[in-house]
C-alpha cells in the first residue's frame, strides 16, 4: 500500500533571494532522506512562496524496506581456540547481533579468514519514522539565519505553522514550540485558514485561498499578464529574467498592472530611469515597439484585481518620488566640476592598507600608460587612455552614484560628456568596470580594455600584497571575478604582451609605497600562481584538459592568446601516434636536463656524429622556432628534433665517465630543454590516459 505525504513549513516572509535555493535544498534533502530511510516513493514535488516551503511525496510505501546485511566478526584464529571451540570473542559478537554461534560462517578476505553473520533488519512502519523528518526541515541552509523569541534554533525567518500529513493522519512533531497539524494559511489578506484532509489537495486548496504555491505557475501568470498589456497597449516590455525570478518570489498571488509617470522624467538618462524602476521598485520598464523608453512601468501586485486603481496610484506616487530624487541628484551633480569630484576621492578609502581611491587612480593612470605604450598604441590613444584612467572613479562621489551604486561608470560617462570630454574617453570610463560578472560583456574599445585591465590588476596585486587573497568561498574583493575579466580581455584583444610583464608593471608601482606586505619576488609568484588557477578554470570551460593547461603555463604564462592556442593544439594532438613519438623524445631531454646546470656548450668537445647532428639540429630548430607564426609551426619546429634526439640517446652515454664530456652533453640537453619549456612542459601531459 502507498499514501501521499505532505510537509509544509509556514514562515514569516522570506527574502526573495533565499527561496529558490531553499526549495532546491528541500527537494534534494528529502530525496536523500527517504532513500536513506529505505522508504519507497514514486515522485517528489516541491513548492515555495514567500510564506512557505512545502514538499509533496507521492505514493509513499506504508513500510520501510527490510534489509539483510553481512556483518563481519573477529578473525577465525581469534574466534576459535586451539581445541576448535568458540571463544568469548565469538560468543560476544553473536550475542551483540542477536544471534548464536550456530549462525556463524567464514570467508577469506585478503588471505585472512573472518567470521560472519547474516543479519536481517525488518522494515518499520513508515508513519513511525516520519517524525524524524523534522531534522531535514531544520537542516535547510540559508545565507542568513535568525533566532526569535526565546528559541535557540536558527532559521531564515520565524516558523509560524507546520503541516505534516501521512494521508489524513498528522505526523506528530514540533519545532520551536510549533506543533504539526493539518491546517495551512491562505493569502495574508485575501485568504483564510484551510484544513487539508489529504496531501494531493494541497495545491488546489491554497489556490482557492489566493496562494499559487508553484513558482513556475506564478511566473507564467506574470508573463501572461505582461503579454496582455503588450497586446492591448501596443508596447514592448523587455523581460529581465533576474527581475522576473525575484518578483515571482515576492508574491503569492500575482496581478500585473501598468502605471505611468510624467514625460519630463524622460529627460533623465535612460539607465537612471531603468535602475530606479528595476532595482528600487521591482518594476519592468516599458518601451515602444521601436525600442524607445516610454513613461510607463509594469508592476506586480500581491493580490487580486480589487481596488487595483488605488494600487496603481500608490505605486505611481512612490516612483514619482524616486524619479524626482534622481532628477535632483542629476542636476546637483552637474553644478560640480569633475576636478572637485576627483579631489573628494582623497577622502574615500579603497582599502585601509592600500590607501584611498585617489591613490588607486594614480597607480592605474601610470599602469595604463605603460600598458598602452607596450601595446604600441599611437600617441593620441595613449593620451586618451591615460585621461580615461584619470577620470575612471570620479563619479563614485557623485550624488547619483551614492544613491544608485549600480550606475558607477555609467554616470561617469554621462557627466564626462556633459562637461565636454572626448567621447572615447567617456566611453572608457563606463567600460572599465566590464565585465560586471565572470561571463559578462567585455569592453568594446581598446581604451576601455586597457583601463579595465589596469584597474583590476591593481586591485589583485594590492590585495594579495597585504594578505587578502581569496580563501575557499570567501572573496570579499571579487579577485577571482576580476582575474577572469583581465584574462578574457587579454584573450579577446590578442594582446602581444606577456602576462608576467603586465603583472610586473603593477608590482613595480607598489615598490615605492610604504606598505607592509610581500617582497617583490614573492608577490610576483603569488599573483602569477593566482592567475594560473584562473587560467586553468577559464581554459577548462573551453574543454581543454587540466594536464595540458598546466603543461602550457608551467614555465611561464607568456602571451595569453598564444598560450591558449598551444593548449588547444596539444589537446588535439595528444591522441596522434606521431605526437607521442615527438613527446617521448622531448620528455627524455627534459628529464635529463634537470641534472644539468646552465653552462656554455663547447663545440670542440662534440665528438660523435649523432652528437654533432643533434647540436646542428638544435641551432636550426631554434631559428625556425623563433620565426614560427603560430603554435602549430612552433610545435612542428620542435618535432624536427625528435629523430636526432632518439639517435643521440641510442649512440651516446650522457652521463659519461669523462667529466668534461658529461657536462658538455648535459649543457646541450639543457639548451634544448629551454626551447621545449618555452612551448610547454611536456612532462606534465599524462600519456597513459590517452595512448
TrEMBL record:
Catalyses which reaction(s): tRNA(Gly) + glycine + ATP = glycyl-tRNA(Gly) + AMP + diphosphate
BP terms from Gene Ontology: arginyl-tRNA aminoacylation; glycyl-tRNA aminoacylation
Positions of the DALR anticodon binding domain: 583-678
Pfam families per record: DALR_1, tRNA_synt_2f
GO CC annotation terms, alphabetical: cytosol
GO molecular function: arginine-tRNA ligase activity; ATP binding; glycine-tRNA ligase activity
Keyword Nucleotide-binding attached: yes
Predominant cellular place of this UniProt entry's protein: cytoplasm
Membrane listed as a keyword: no
Coiled-coil segments: none
Subunit organization: Tetramer of two alpha and two beta subunits.
Recorded family membership: Belongs to the class-II aminoacyl-tRNA synthetase family.
Protein name, as recorded: Glycine--tRNA ligase beta subunit
The organism of origin for this protein: Cerasibacillus quisquiliarum
Amino acid at each position: 500500500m502507498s499514501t501521499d505525504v505532505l510537509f509544509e513549513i509556514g514562515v514569516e516572509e522570506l527574502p526573495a533571494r533565499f527561496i529558490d535555493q531553499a526549495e532546491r535544498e528541500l527537494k534534494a534533502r528529502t530525496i536523500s532522506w527517504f532513500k536513506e530511510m529505505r522508504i519507497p516513493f514514486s515522485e517528489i514535488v516541491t513548492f515555495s512562496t514567500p510564506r512557505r516551503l512545502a514538499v509533496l511525496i507521492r505514493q509513499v510505501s506504508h513500510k520501510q524496506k527490510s534489509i539483510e546485511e553481512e556483518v563481519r566478526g573477529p578473525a577465525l584464529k581469534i574466534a576459535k581456540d586451539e581445541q576448535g571451540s568458540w571463544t568469548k570473542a565469538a560468543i560476544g559478537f553473536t550475542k551483540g547481533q542477536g544471534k548464536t554461534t550456530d549462525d556463524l560462517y567464514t570467508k577469506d578476505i585478503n588471505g585472512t579468514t573472518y567470521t560472519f553473520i547474516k543479519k536481517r533488519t525488518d522494515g518499520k512502519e513508515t508513519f513511525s519514522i516520519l517524525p524524524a523528518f523534522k531534522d531535514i526541515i531544520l537542516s535547510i541552509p540559508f545565507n542568513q539565519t535568525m533566532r526569535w523569541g526565546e528559541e535557540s534554533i536558527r532559521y531564515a525567518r520565524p516558523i509560524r505553522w507546520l503541516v505534516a500529513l501521512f494521508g489524513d493522519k498528522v505526523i506528530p512533531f514540533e519545532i520551536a514550540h510549533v506543533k504539526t497539524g493539518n491546517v495551512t494559511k491562505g493569502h495574508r489578506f485575501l485568504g483564510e485558514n484551510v484544513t487539508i484532509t489529504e496531501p494531493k489537495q494541497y495545491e488546489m486548496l491554497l489556490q482557492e485561498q489566493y496562494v499559487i504555491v508553484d513558482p513556475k505557475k506564478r511566473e507564467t501568470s506574470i508573463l501572461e499578464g505582461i503579454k496582455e498589456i503588450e497586446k492591448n497597449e501596443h508596447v514592448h516590455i523587455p523581460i529581465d529574467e533576474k527581475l522576473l525570478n525575484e518578483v515571482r518570489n515576492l508574491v503569492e498571488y500575482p496581478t500585473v498592472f501598468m502605471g505611468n509617470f510624467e514625460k519630463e522624467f524622460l529627460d533623465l538618462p535612460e539607465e537612471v530611469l531603468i535602475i530606479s524602476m528595476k532595482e528600487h521598485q521591482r518594476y519592468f520598464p516599458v518601451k515602444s515597439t521601436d525600442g524607445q523608453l516610454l513613461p510607463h512601468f509594469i508592476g506586480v501586485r500581491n493580490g487580486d484585481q480589487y481596488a487595483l486603481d488605488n494600487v496603481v496610484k500608490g505605486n505611481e506616487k512612490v516612483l514619482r518620488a524616486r524619479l524626482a530624487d534622481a532628477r535632483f541628484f542629476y542636476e546637483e551633480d552637474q553644478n560640480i566640476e569633475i576636478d572637485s569630484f576627483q579631489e573628494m576621492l582623497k577622502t574615500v578609502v579603497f582599502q585601509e592598507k592600500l590607501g584611498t581611491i585617489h591613490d588607486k587612480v594614480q597607480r592605474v593612470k601610470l599602469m595604463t600608460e605603460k600598458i598602452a605604450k607596450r601595446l604600441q598604441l599611437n600617441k593620441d590613444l595613449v593620451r586618451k587612455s591615460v585621461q580615461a584612467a584619470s577620470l575612471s572613479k570620479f563619479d563614485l562621489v557623485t550624488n547619483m552614484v551614492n544613491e544608485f551604486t549600480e550606475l558607477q561608470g555609467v554616470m561617469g560617462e554621462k557627466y564626462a560628456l556633459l562637461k565636454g570630454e572626448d567621447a572615447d574617453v567617456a566611453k572608457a570610463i563606463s567600460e572599465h568596470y566590464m565585465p560586471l560578472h565572470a561571463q559578462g560583456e567585455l569592453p568594446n574599445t581598446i581604451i576601455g580594455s586597457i583601463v579595465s585591465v589596469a584597474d583590476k590588476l591593481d586591485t589583485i596585486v594590492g590585495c594579495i600584497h597585504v594578505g587578502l587573497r581569496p580563501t575557499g568561498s570567501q572573496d570579499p574583493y571579487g579577485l577571482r571575478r576580476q582575474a577572469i575579466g583581465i584574462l578574457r580581455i587579454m584573450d579577446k584583444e590578442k594582446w602581444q604582451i606577456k602576462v608576467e610583464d603586465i603583472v610586473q608593471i603593477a608590482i613595480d608601482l607598489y615598490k615605492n609605497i610604504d606598505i607592509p606586505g610581500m617582497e617583490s619576488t614573492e608577490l610576483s609568484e603569488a599573483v602569477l600562481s593566482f592567475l594560473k588557477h584562473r587560467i586553468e578554470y577559464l581554459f577548462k570551460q573551453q574543454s581543454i584538459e587540466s594536464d595540458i593547461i598546466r603543461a602550457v603555463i608551467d614555465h611561464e604564462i607568456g602571451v595569453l592568446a598564444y598560450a591558449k592556442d598551444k593548449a588547444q593544439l596539444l589537446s588535439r594532438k595528444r591522441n596522434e601516434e606521431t605526437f607521442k613519438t615527438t613527446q617521448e623524445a622531448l620528455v627524455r631531454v627534459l628529464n635529463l636536463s634537470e641534472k644539468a646546470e646552465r653552462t656554455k656548450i663547447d663545440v670542440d668537445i662534440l665528438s660523435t656524429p649523432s652528437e654533432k647532428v643533434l647540436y646542428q639540429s638544435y641551432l636550426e630548430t631554434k631559428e625556425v622556432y623563433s620565426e614560427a607564426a603560430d603554435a602549430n609551426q612552433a610545435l612542428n619546429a620542435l618535432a624536427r628534433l625528435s629523430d636526432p634526439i632518439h639517435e643521440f640517446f641510442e649512440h651516446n652515454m650522457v652521463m659519461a665517465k669523462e667529466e668534461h664530456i658529461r657536462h658538455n652533453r648535459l649543457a646541450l640537453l639543457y639548451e634544448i630543454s629551454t626551447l621545449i619549456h618555452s612551448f610547454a612542459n611536456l612532462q606534465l601531459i599524462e600519456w597513459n590516459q590517452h595512448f
